[in-house]
UniProtKB/TrEMBL annotation:
PANTHER family: SERINE / THREONINE RACEMASE FAMILY MEMBER, SERINE RACEMASE. SUPFAM superfamilies: Tryptophan synthase beta subunit-like PLP-dependent enzymes (SSF53686). Its cofactor is pyridoxal 5'-phosphate. This is Threonine/serine dehydratase. GO terms for biological process: D-serine biosynthetic process.
Amino acid sequence: MTKQELKDRHNTIKPYIHRTPVLTSRLLNEISGTTLFFKCENFQRMGAFKMRGAASAISKLSEAQKSKGVVTHSSGNFAQALSLAALSLGVKAYIVMPSNAPQVKKDAVKGYKGEIIECPPTLEDREQAADLIQKEKGATFIHPSDNLDVILGQGTAALELLEDHSDLEYILTPVGGGGLIAGTALAAHFYGNNCKVIGGEPFEVDDAYRSLQSGKIETNDTINTIADGLKTQLGDINFPIIQKHVSEIIRVEEQEIINAMRLIWERMKIIIEPSCAVPFAALLREKEKFKHKKVGIILSGGNVDLGNLPF
């Protein structure tokens, strides 16, 4: 991975993504005691940063691979991202979704012309169903977060942020499967000026925090968090990048996530999902660390179930 590879990837996916705005808030600066720059991936196509990684991965396939389609298993944003990216690039998308996935997410996938294959809600069942489609259709499997092309795509959000604000001292992202923070860490390494990358993670699913402590990929016994996008774990490809380039991970309580989410809704008048509020919650939890610093926060997505808000 090189600086040029990341730049080339950005140029490749530009026709398929939005260059999302960077917003500021004087009031949130006062509350946090720092200068904040919010990269609004909640305004990305399909409502989340994952559009970048999906477009990146599909664009790297050969014509022969594209002709047979792509497959992934996801109950959330990546299901929508891969469907829309595939539609944009003229490729068939097969999406394995657990039977208990929210209907609103299934409807979104169908809206983007993705073909849904339902399975029982266990990781094993999801993987088996995806394997079967690979064998039967010859489709290429694209992992939501543990795929180098996906990671490079996700890193383009931070690349754009650093192009707009080259003097950032920190960039904060949520940590779930690890694709966004790994890509962000690469972008900061290549394009930042001594810019540190820090992850935010719920105490309820702190596998990435524990993985950095132990030096091996840890799992979660429970996934009792409002941040439903962060229930996945790190992978073999993104974990070494995170070990090398991520400074630390700050853990937050559930109520801190809700408070941070509400603050952004109320003060910035924008919609973000709970997972997206986690890095801002982390910054508020450890204000002293960031005092008088210039801090970028990747607002990862805005796909909220409006009938099930936490406030």
